[in-house]
Amino acid sequence: MRSAVDLRTALRSTSAVRTFRADPVDETLVRQILEVARFAPSGGNRQGWRVIDVRDPGQRQALRDCYLDAWVEYLAHLLAGVTPFSPLLTAADRSAVAQNLERARSRIAPDDFAARLDEVPALLVICADLGALAATDRDLDRYTFIGGASIYPFVWSILLAARAEGLGGVMTTVATALESRLRDVLRLPDEFAVAAVVALGHPENERTHLRRREVDDFATRDTFDGPPLDR
Ligand SMILES: Cc1cc2nc3c(=O)[nH]c(=O)nc-3n(C[C@H](O)[C@H](O)[C@H](O)COP(=O)(O)O)c2cc1C
Q1: Which atom of ligand 1 lies nearest, measured to the CA of 170?
Q2: Domains in the chain, CATH or no CATH each
């Protein structure tokens, strides 16, 4: 089923989808989605992405196990009251996270998205060729993130292109915390990094009202502390 929503509506209402009907998403459909998403922009048009469509049940379970272990870490951050994986966490924050790991693990239910990741209709791993990234902040004395800007528009385009086919899905990144394990599972060459794991499928239910900050919360004129934009 193709969706007929216009671009503005699609941008305002494409939510993260983590529960899917059993209907399969075959490789041909994934190819069709990538055929649209490949027009995403990247720094210098280097298009340094690779996509691995993971179908093998053993590979999927290995991926799920990485995801699950990283998800426990994510939950431990929440239990410790800090922003998960923020580069600005202090040593004290990190130690609070470590102290919450066991409690976090005990909170995983068998039905959680993380525990059933291997069952999603399509499971794509998006990798980035580090040699192709325009990481203009690579020499700055702070955490670097500009390189990702050459890959994530592509990942988002996959989700939008999937929506155009009547599918839903979610971009996930927690598993990248355990990249060395993923590297073995996927047989990744050294110069590639894992950017995201994307789940796709036919949504179990439609949710189009998204909770997002208002423009006045994040946009100003001229300077960071300038006035809000005209209405
Ligand atoms: C960079 C990025 C990383 C994300 N990582 C995860 C993840 O690891 N696991 C997950 O379940 N959702 C992940 N998400 C999905 C977000 O949780 C979701 O987009 C956000 O909560 C908004 O949800 P909504 O569109 O349903 O309102 C990620 C989203 C982005 C953009």
Answers
A1: 15
A2: 7-57+113-204 (3.40.109.10)
